[in-house]
Amino acid sequence: MSQTITIDPVTRLEGHGKITIHLNGQGEVEDAHFHVTQVRGFERFSEGRPFYEMPSLMARICGICPVSHLIASAKACEAIMSVHIPHTAAQLRRMLNLAQMVQSHALSFFYLASPDLLLGMESDPKARHIFGVAAAAPELGRAGVGLRRFGQSIIELLGDKRIHPGWVIPGGVTEPLPSEKRDKILAMIPEAHANIALALEAYKKIADTFKAEIAVFANFPSNYMSLVNEDESIEFTDGALRLIGPTGQTIEDGITATRYAEVIGEAVEPYSYTKFAYYKPLGYPDGSYRVGPLARLNIVKSMGTPKAEKEFSEFTHIATGPVESSFHYHHARLVEMLYGIEKIEEILADPRILDKHVRATAGVNRLEGAGQAEAPRGVLHHHYKVDDDGKITWANLVIATGQNNKAMNLGVLQAAKHYVKNGKFTEGILNRVEAVVRTFDPCLSCSTHAMGQMPLAITLISSQGEELDRVVRD
Amino acid sequence: MNSDLAEPMHFEKANCLVLACGNTLRSDDGVGPKLAEWATERFRDDSHVRVVARQQWTPDLAEDIAAAESVLFVDSSSNSAPGRVNLIPVATHGNGREDPIHGPSTHHIDPAELLGLTHSLYGSMSAHAMLLTIGAGSTELGESFSDPVEAALPRARGVLEKTVLRFLEN
């Protein structure tokens, strides 16, 4: 008799989801799915709103990465306005986006992943959380708190609020950067460097103890997509998209925001409210790809800042081609945080950052516009159509978690097949299956544009469809 | 009063931290931030008082608590009668909820857990920690308070003020 295991809800995620594992009559894993069970619908209720309201409206999709939504949305609006924003405004936005990346990656690594990494996948679940980390490695816990504060303080300094900041508007930003705020941010840099150095050192010491997990945590060839600069260095705010294949070969380069709809399709599966993005010329599912830190580091040729470049070089030596195991998302996040700190310092060292010209103004000059930016979890597309009065008539968002959706499902299946034998499983095994999803740091609120909460659930289902076991967390 | 971002990296040691929590778009749930707004004005000229309002209490706040001698948590309560004002001491909870299924959330933790986390991370314990709650009548979407909560605001402000002044005396 076949069975199904349900993990419901999956914990330590941004949003609601569950995992089901289907077993055949011999108790072997036949199939597995990661389900996103929330729905919201921002595209629909933005219809009729003035286009210039969109950035602040879209930022409400997510409390973790509102800045990326602000920026992608503002860029879509600027395409409608047909304007190029001033250099200083672009740099200020870049800094804001990097600050968000640092705080979001810190949340993912220190709060969500480190309980597994520091305490072990089989450790007592009663202590496998942030309190356990604080007790076992307080210096690392403090580093995490410090890096969160670093990113959030910059967001608050620039956008007045830590969550759902304003400041980014169609045409640039609302006001220039005063020198006092620049100096406050610069004063935070040394501590941020010390914190990320400590985290990198700690991670590298323990990573080798997870060889078994690395081998089966979504460890398979895939395509990858991210923004990249013309000089092939990493980019979070501008640049164009590159898609590479399983051996690292470029499949398509220079995909601008206006072209994304030509090349990216969205498939639907009956078990999830999140769509499955794919590269149209390869079709679905062959055209599925991964985004986010692992994809970015697999695609770019350099980081463009000295310390991050050194760490990047080390990262690329993990494999001869693209680094395939999603376990390495954790490492990639740390390298990116280091890059973010260095880049923010570099941006602030340029005296032009205090320039007063930070906003371009215009009305509706096109009836359609698209924008893209890297969110911490991967590239984000906003695409709008407006009428002559600038009111939204249609909107579509393609979110990082949707783009990672196929890989997450295949990763859950791979881990489940490896760990679940003869229909038997333990809490530690189920935790590993959840941990595969955590490596991607999915934001289920973003992916369904839905209101975010944490939980996720695992179900064991028989070949007759009977639910045999379920672990529920809410 | 120290503003929230006066010294983002190195907080000056505050004698008293007022730490409010609530969603201002959810009617009575926003009473915490409303009282924080009042406390900001009331103690504007007092450098020993720091006021922080958040939509949720998160682990990051351990750092703010570690930099304070006393802490007054302010929140709405769905367990009290609407408009009821309660002031209770907070005991440290060292290990989070001992619940194998839930564990502590990274998105919201309670005052006792925050104190416990502060102790684990920074080795510091606030000399005094109290929780001021106001019973919520409605947490539906809205930016105004229910009648019982509106009527309770003067009393809640009074309790908040007295508690902070008492912390400052110690």
Structural overview:
The complex is a heterodimer of chains A (474) and B (170). Chain A has 474 residues and is α+β, with helices and mostly antiparallel strands. Chain A has a single domain (3-213, 349-471), classed as Cytochrome-c3 Hydrogenase, chain B. Helices cover 43% and strands 18% of the residues of chain A. The longest helix of chain A has 33 residues, at 87-119. A 5-stranded mixed beta sheet of chain B has the order 2-1-3-5-4. In chain B, helix 1 links the parallel strand 1 (14-21) and strand 2 (49-54). The longest helix of chain B is centred in the C-terminal third of the chain and has 23 residues, at 147-169. The interface between A and B is medium-sized, with 39 and 29 residues.
Strand content of chain B: 15-25%
Radius of gyration of chain A: 22 Å
Topology-level CATH name of chain A: Cytochrome-c3 Hydrogenase, chain B
Helix content of chain B: 25-40%
- What's the helix count of chain B? 4
Structural class of chain A: alpha+beta
Overall shape of chain A: globular
Mean pLDDT of chain A: 89
Question: What is the makeup of the main sheet of chain A?
Answer: 5 strands, mixed
Unreliable spans of chain A? 448-455
User: In the residues of chain A, how many domains can be counted?
Assistant: 1
CATH architectural arrangement of chain B = 3-Layer(aba) Sandwich
Q: What Rg of chain B do the Cα atoms give?
A: 15 Å
Give unreliable regions of chain B as ranges: 2-9, 95-102
Strand portion of chain A: 15-25%
Per CATH, the architecture of chain A is Orthogonal Bundle
| The CATH homology group name of chain B | HybD-like
Helix share of residues of chain A? 40-55%
Q: In summary, what is this structure?
A:
The complex is a heterodimer of chains A (474) and B (170). Chain A contains 16 helices and 16 strands.
